[in-house]
Amino acid sequence: MPEVVIIGGGLSGLVAAITARQAGLSCVVIEKGRSLGGDGNYVEGVMGVDSRLQQQAGITIDRTRLLQDELNYSHYEASAPHLKQLIDHSGETIDWLADQGVKFASVGPQGKSWPTIHAFAGGGHAAVATLVAKARQLGVEFCMSTSTQKLLQTAGHLSGVEVMNEVTGQTTKIATDNVILATGGYVDNPELVKKQTPLSDRLMSVSDGKSTGDGMQLAWAAGAMHDSMGALQFGGGAIFDPMLPPFMHMTSEIGVAATQEAILWVNQVGDRFVNEDVNDNMCHAGNALLGQARTFAIFDAEAVKHLSTVGLYKAVGNSPFSPDTLSKLPDELASDLAAHRKYLAKADSLETLAEQLHLPNLVDSVAHYNQQVAAGVDADFGKASAYLTPVKDGPFYAVTLGVGMACAIGGLRIDTHNAVLNAHGYPLPGLYAIGNDAAGMLVGDTYAVTLPGSTAGFAAFSGRNAVAAIVQNK
Ligand SMILES: Cc1cc2nc3c(=O)[nH]c(=O)nc-3n(C[C@H](O)[C@H](O)[C@H](O)COP(=O)(O)OP(=O)(O)OC[C@H]3O[C@@H](n4cnc5c(N)ncnc54)[C@H](O)[C@@H]3O)c2cc1C
Predict the structure, then answer these.
(1) Which of 15, 23, 25, 267 shows the greatest Cβ crowding within 10 Å of its Cβ?
(2) What atom of ligand 1 comes closest to residue 436's alpha carbon?
(3) Where is each FAD-dependent oxidoreductase 2 FAD-binding domain found (predicted)?
């Protein structure tokens, strides 16, 4: 009988599996997909404080100020002990990842944030490949295309799991004393997401489709507390295309221009509604966009020329990697217009564009906006003057915007050993949750992109932390 069964072979599950084997525990990973790594494959970077890399780069962070800042950001809905524990151990977690062979390209801030994001060299795919190789080398057993159906309990104690082969439908029981839930949260479960926001039709998951909230539902069925469902991690504005899935636009330069360059945004009637440089915090941008019924980015021929040949108006804040220019922008516009993609509109005059999109106030809004651009002051919403760029020279373009969601966290309450708590706040013996399944404890209603890389940082930290508790209880 394995000493630990880990449900989910994503970022947190892989870290837990390696740590378990290094501690001499026998370990099986149950993964419902055909591949490993989960959304860890898309992660750009991991949060850390006082890592070796930061020390080399001369980056110092006042941990107490950081903790207070994040607690204030969450309106003290985040748990101070959990946040402090993550901050205190995040640097050594980065060092541990590096010791397993994971390579980092850089460390620094993301938009207006603390300088905590350690960007993976080669992206999440490279990091996952390294961790998978390490896990296999250590003898971790992976059961692929196998989902967990039920947690088994005997006299109130966890005694195993019932799993199902997704191909054959065959079910099997695996006895164990320790189960770690690492199923990646619930971003791909529309029913659960809908509970978080009334406008969920404009929310698009950019996950791999497998984060369906299984961990929390398994735990709830076993008596776990239904804790506040935490935050959705908005990826800021995103192209809202009824014809293609969101991931098809992930590398789109039209998307960068429309969402990252702080150009004019208007709503369903053509009114401006926010300082567009709010995109420095992609969750704030997501909240602002979701507050409207429809949203559009509006720009002109001069903006296309500037962005594609001269340079960006604004460094891309949502990525550690910012391009110099958007050289593919003219070609992308031409090809998507030729393909009649519904998210994109073009017209020689603003009047025609307004008519096409049914935006009665657009022409007046643009005239008013251009006056503020000429004066160099956004008296309406206070956007930085550097990003006040006019909308004057046709042809004019409109990109329909929705909001991308990278992950949805929360649903369970854990103690500082990552043990899952029951409705009375006591640990369910043998049951642990890590990664997105447990990360709701770290945030309030708005995900903390002020501490960039924190989901991945917590995934790695919590994987190690849960195993340390199992070793201690042995
Ligand atoms: C596009 C994108 C970019 C992101 N970038 C970042 C970033 O730069 N920094 C950051 O901090 N975070 C980022 N995230 C958030 C990311 O979700 C987490 O950082 C990380 O992947 C969480 O790890 P996890 O182990 O909880 O979930 P995952 O890595 O998603 O792993 C969950 C695994 O559980 C499996 N699973 C689910 N249900 C079951 C079941 N019933 N039985 C068995 N297996 C199951 C899934 O198939 C999956 O393999 C990003 C997310 C996305 C989608």
Answers:
(1) 15
(2) 26
(3) 4-441
